[in-house]
Amino acid sequence: MFVLQALIMLLLVAVASAALVVQGLYDAERSAADRSLAAAEAFAHAPGTALALRSPDPTARLQPAAEQAQKGAGVDFISVLDKHGVRLTDPDPALIGTKAQGVGRAAAGEAFTETFHGRPTDAVRAVVPVTDASRRVVGMVTAGIQYANVGHVLHRQLPLLLGAAAGALVLATGGAALVSRRLLRQTHGLGPAEMTRMYEHHDAVLHAVREGVLIVGGDGRVRLANDEAQRLLDLPGDVDQRQVRELGLGPRLTRLLESEETATDEVIPAGDRLLAVNIRPTAPFGGVQGLVATFRDTTELQALSGQAEVARGRLSFLYEAGVRIGTTLDVQRTAEELSEVAVPRMADFVTVELLDSVLRGQEPSSAVREMRRTALRASQSGHPLQPVGDVIRFVMADTPMVAALRRGKAVLVPDLHTAQDWRAQDPEGAQRALDYGIHSLITVPLRARGVVLGMVNLWRGAGALPFDEEDVAVAEELVARAAVAIDNARRYSREHELAVTLQRNLLPLGLPEQDALEIASRYLPARSGVGGDWFDVIPLPGFRVALVVGDIVGHGLQAAVTMGRLRTAVLNFSSLDLAPDELLGHLDEMVTRLDTQSATADDDRVPLTGATCLYAIYDPVGGHCTLSRAGHLAPAVVDPEGRVTFPDLPLSPPLGVGGHPFESGELDLPEGSRLVLFTDGLIENRGRDIDEGLAMLSAAIAHPDRTPEETCRALVETMLPLHPRDDVALLVARTRLLAPSCVATWDVPFDVEAVPRVRREVSRRLADWGLEGTAFATELILSELLTNALRYGAPPVRVRLLLGRTLVCEVSDGSNTSPRLRRAATTDEGGRGLFLVSQFADIWGTRYAARGKVIWAEQTLDSVPEPDPSALFDFMEL
Fold first, then answer.
1. pLDDT class of 777 with cuts at 50, 70, 90
2. What is the distance between the alpha carbons of residues 514 and 543, in angstroms, rounded to a whole number?
3. Beta pairing partners, 630
């Protein structure tokens, strides 16, 4: 029996010993795995690990921490890997930078333990992923105990096991083993000290964070709530194990916690706070069914965000106002833009009143108690405010408008029902406004450069909040920007009006009377300001007419002044009765000289160089026209049948270029032809080139029955927009011919004895014309001019009489020597003829031809000139 018992005991001891050995080996590996997992998880979830992995040198930051954690955890190694498995730290520095094997599951986000066989050594290890706030794997931590050390632990325990077995404490040893197994399983291999330290650490962290944490089990009961969660949610002290629905968290938050749905930064009101709530279930992360909710107080952040949004909206509004106000240089349109910007974003009604002087472009007057309503914008129809155009008077001393004018800044009336002075100024109108629902007002003076231009009133009606002080600041800034734009428009209008007035006064005020051409003209200033385009019609001796069209480079007042200088020069040169090419030559020399002088002066004058000019002389005796142009477009010629041509005339460079001769072209124009002279602004613009413009011009004037006035009107309507970009000068002339019966010509032999005969023939022709009353003066003029030509000139000599609205007597010869008026001495036999001519003729002069000269004298027909006897006697010293 004993033997049997001994055998049984031996068998039991052997079985128990073997079981204990196996159990010891298993427990050793299990313990090693648990310790490795705990060490790896603690290091992986440590507060600085994820941030260190993202640092420029993670090895330097993590190697010391890993060594310290290795010593504290009692493991053989703790290594930190990047997300690709490359070692960043290792107890063996030689392994840093090498790639670890078999860590793919952790790279995919799974923590695991295993008995690893391979390089660098066999070990029981745990591999835990390191994740960032968004649960992305940024690295891994591996910790473990070498397999040889696991067996060494077993060998140290074996004598104890054998001693226990030998002591026949099989049942006690077995019970102890069972208890040990259970404890190890529940504590994951951690001892009481480690468990206490870990609990204290986790509890301190949980309650120290400034973020509420609430853990709810799968049954809807609260498992844990940290101090911040209790403060933010106003939870009772006995919150543990209470149902979520019993905590009075509000329906929305309660629904989120009970539904166990994931939530990310969802803003939920809780009492007087706004909480950003994040909810994550615990089951997917290895825990039991339940959820973890975190709470962040965003009340102040939301308030700051709201204030920033309001400020951003106001800045956006003011920026939009700066873009939309002042798009034109028109005072009234700028005021309208101000009202359009403010309604409805800032006010329900906006009125803008301006001084009449500002509307006229003049300097603002000091009388600011009377303004004219210039713009009105309303978000609703049927309002009771006075319409645009009404005169607004400020008669009460203490109304908001008068107070704003006196102070020079905005005045706020939050409630118009209490504004007694405003109501007293116009009781009926004020009552209508109040009945309509208008209840709040900001009135702001329009000031620029310290001067009042007008007044802006912003009103709010029913359904809108009253204005406050912040609205006043925005209104002042808005009105200040608009005031600058309005003042710019006013000053531009004034300058533009001055320039246009100057331009029009420098242009011909009317077309001169003459019989050679039927003329119509147009001048249209550019939208951006006047320019230097001009035209002129200049009567010349012998019923000839000069037509001039020119264009100055640039725009503005200086261009207009420059045009006036050139026009005056052309008028002066034309008085010399020069040929077109000679006149342009003199004009070119003058431009060059003036530009040379201006180049040395310190001013901003517009240069003359580059100006273009077309000068034409039309002679109604035969319909001959001579033209010369300096850089200018050729005119269009419309024959009596309506055919349009652009004659090929010699083109010389613009004025002031110098170094090139000027040439003339000749045209013979039948009676009824139209000559169309224009500047480039008529045919050129951004939408068409010069060829297309000339084609359009040809189509517009190709009508044989149109008068010059009708032609001008058709060209303006067809060719030009309402506000052209460039100024335009246009001149249309329809030709007339002097009747052959009104022209008498005599070729005179180069002999003074022919003078009496020619004088008699001229008298007969005057009698045929019914001009016997002018016969004496004409014969005297003819005798003196013809005698001078025969004595001092050269053949051939010719006499011509022209009858029109005046009588013209011309004597031409082949000499280029021109006689001059002088005082003859008492001993001189001659020298008095031209004085007699000047006394009996209304005007006389000399012009040069290609060969020789022509001396002419002109007499009016409605009265016979009577010379001054005293002047005659004084001149002849009688």
1. confident
2. 7
3. 613, 652
